Automatic annotation (TrEMBL):
Pathway it works in: Cofactor biosynthesis; adenosylcobalamin biosynthesis; cob(II)yrinate a,c-diamide from sirohydrochlorin (anaerobic route): step 10/10
Note: The a and c carboxylates of cobyrinate are activated for nucleophilic attack via formation of a phosphorylated intermediate by ATP. CbiA catalyzes first the amidation of the c-carboxylate, and then that of the a-carboxylate.
Domain named CobB/CobQ-like glutamine amidotransferase: residues: 249-437
Site (Increases nucleophilicity of active site Cys): H432
Swiss-Prot/TrEMBL keywords: ATP-binding, Cobalamin biosynthesis, Glutamine amidotransferase, Ligase, Magnesium, Nucleotide-binding
Domain comment (free text): Comprises of two domains. The C-terminal domain contains the binding site for glutamine and catalyzes the hydrolysis of this substrate to glutamate and ammonia. The N-terminal domain is anticipated to bind ATP and cobyrinate and catalyzes the ultimate synthesis of the diamide product. The ammonia produced via the glutaminase domain is probably translocated to the adjacent domain via a molecular tunnel, where it reacts with an activated intermediate.
Active site: C332
GO molecular function: ATP binding; cobyrinic acid a,c-diamide synthase activity
Organism the protein comes from: Aminipila luticellarii
Catalytic activity: cob(II)yrinate + 2 L-glutamine + 2 ATP + 2 H2O = cob(II)yrinate a,c diamide + 2 L-glutamate + 2 ADP + 2 phosphate + 2 H(+)
Protein name per the record: Cobyrinate a,c-diamide synthase
InterPro entries: CbiA/CobB_synth, Class_I_gatase-like, CobQ/CobB/MinD/ParA_Nub-bd_dom, GATase_3, P-loop_NTPase
Length: 456
């Protein structure tokens, strides 16, 4: 067992839409402006917020998810990814107590805070509220005796109301009010179907973040926030056994269309011996030379169907590689790209790689959503028969050929389905997977890639 002294704070909210991400970005930028080394994290499986932290703030943000990983693995990843930081700031998910089902705390912000012994700060949306704010804070603070809620920040509140309500909260509830953020219309960060927009799409982003940071420095007691983080106890963890094999070259699709990757997945592949070679299905004419494996993550291919179809030479290069049995892992949007065609929302079909028979079409709603435990029905690129790995699905497009290689089971629910097209050289399906839910899947992927000779 190893230990690490890591000042840390979790910033949660009573519900989504409370302004949590905006306030977190304001605090992160304000601390960056002070020269404070920070590690940022996101509770849950979301790709967008960590991407935003990385692209907009320059922070290598990671996910901490207690469905994918047990508490010891979470503490290891928290410590590992904070090794160069003076403070870790964890952004919560959904409502503070909302877990993987409507009746469970599991994998909630609260669950993460208690299992990592991290003090929490609650963002309270104060629009159209006054004294009723106290009832909301009291309910969240006292629902569980180990709530770990040690402070609050009031959002979307006027300076005048804040000065009146702050002493009332502290006197009646005995909780620290760390400050407030007023309503800043020009600084709103818009959303779309997969969450917060990506950083490249936010106009005047630097100006927005500078304005948010200036406001946070003025109206949030950052020194008190850091002191609260310093009350967190040491974290203890056991480092998992990771054995580096022989070097292999794995091509990773990375651009605006394919941008959903867990950084811990990529880091683990590197630790196992993979040399990751990034390429763009949108911009590059062909695959990098001498690849022994391919990895297509999710993203927004549906927004770039015309451009993906137009890059015929790349599509042909990928199809040729797969026909030559180059091992390939393709998740969600990457899986869609391997199909013969994908339709846009209007029903227009666009040619894709053609390595997977069938077509993806817009369903007009979430098709399958949420966490799943996946059991391999037959051996494939990631798993031997009977192996389990955890993943999640979130997509508005569906395929008429989703595969039957895995049995996917929703936790605490009776709902299940078949998914993934797979064999010894292929994993292609809608589920996103997290390698730290079963490191042996990552080892198997790298080892099979290592068996592929180069120069073909």
């Amino acid at each position: 067992m190893e230990t690490k002294n890591l000042p840390r704070i979790l910033i949660g909210a009573p519900s989504s839409g409370s302004g949590k991400t905006t306030v977190v970005c304001a605090i992160l930028q304000a601390l960056i402006n002070r020269g404070c080394p920070i590690a940022s994290f996101k509770c849950g499986p979301d790709y967008i917020d960590p991407m935003f932290h990385k692209e907009a703030l320059g922070l290598a943000s990671r996910n901490l998810d207690l469905f994918f990983n047990d508490a010891d693995t979470i503490q290891y990843l928290l410590a590992k990814n904070s090794r160069h930081a003076d403070i870790a700031i964890i952004e919560g998910v959904m409502g503070y107590y909302d877990g993987i089902t409507g009746k469970s705390y599991e994998a909630s912000s609260y669950d993460l805070a208690r299992k990592t012994k991290t003090p929490s700060v609650l963002i309270i949306d104060c629009k159209a509220k006054a004294v009723s704010i106290l009832a909301e804070i009291k309910g969240f603070k006292e629902l569980e005796s180990d709530s770990n809620i040690k402070g609050v920040i009031l959002n979307r509140i006027s300076p005048q109301i804040y000065e009146e309500i702050k002493p009332l909260i502290e006197e009646k509830l005995g909780i620290t009010v760390l400050g407030y953020m007023p309503f800043l219309k020009e600084c709103s960060l818009e959303s779309r179907h997969l969450g917060l927009v990506t950083a490249q799409e936010v106009g005047n982003l630097k100006k927005i973040l500078d304005r948010l940071a200036a406001q946070a420095a003025e109206s949030i007691d950052l020194d008190k926030l850091v002191k609260l983080a310093q009350t967190a106890p040491e974290i203890g963890f056991t480092k998992p056994e990771i054995v580096c094999g022989k070097k292999v070259r794995i091509g990773v699709a990375k651009d605006k269309a394919f941008c959903f990757y867990y950084q811990d997945n990529l880091d683990l592949l590197t630790e196992l011996g993979a040399d990751l070679c990034y390429f763009s299905p949108l911009e590059d004419q062909k695959l990098p030379e001498d690849l022994q494996g391919l990895y297509f993550g999710g993203g927004y291919p549906e927004l770039y169907l015309k451009e993906l179809e137009a890059n015929r030479s790349m599509r042909q290069s990928i199809k040729k590689a797969l026909e030559e049995n180059v091992p390939c892992l393709a998740e969600c949007g990457g899986f869609m790209y391997l199909h013969e065609t994908v339709q846009d929302k209007l029903g227009h079909s666009y040619k894709m790689v053609g390595a997977v028979r069938g077509e993806c079409t817009y369903a007009g709603k979430l098709v399958r959503f949420g966490y799943i435990d996946m059991r391999a029905e037959k051996a494939n690129l990631l798993c031997t028969e009977g192996m389990h790995i955890k993943g999640h699905e979130f997509h508005y497009w569906d395929s008429n050929n989703s595969g039957e290689c895995f049995h996917a089971q929703k936790p605490y629910r009776s709902k299940s389905w078949k998914c993934v097209i797979g064999n010894e050289q292929l994993y292609a399906g809608y589920p996103h997977i997290h390698f730290y839910s079963n490191i042996k899947a990552a080892e198997r992927f790298v080892n099979i890639c290592g068996q592929k000779k180069t120069g073909n």
